[in-house]
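Researcher: Checking consistency across runs. Here is 12-oxophytodienoate reductase again:
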Amino acid sequence: MVESLNKYDIACCHMAEPRIKMIANKVECPDSLLPIRKAFKNTLLVVGGYDREAGNKAIAEKRADLFMYGSFFLANPDLPRRFKLNTPLNKYNREIFHISDPVIGYTDYPFLEATTYG
């Protein structure tokens, strides 16, 4: 499939890491997308259970070009700042994903306190 995309010079390919094995909320299948990375010649975007450390390691090992952090972004509206400062993340609650309540869910996760983390 990916080799076919190369024929059309598709700019990027977004893949979901299969959750084959999750141990303590960490991805334990680091090479599962490696064949796709090797075959696809342009930007590979990946999502699926990666935290800051695992994403940075996979980038350094050239297993992907970019990572998506959907659930982490929902629970941490200031995720780039938290990653930059390497601070703890809010835990997300899957039970309130995609509900229609305008107060609970997408808008009620706390930001870092400016005085605490500069």
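Researcher: Does this match what you'd expect to see?
Model: One thing to look at in this run: The CA atoms of residues 15 and 36 lie 9 Å apart.
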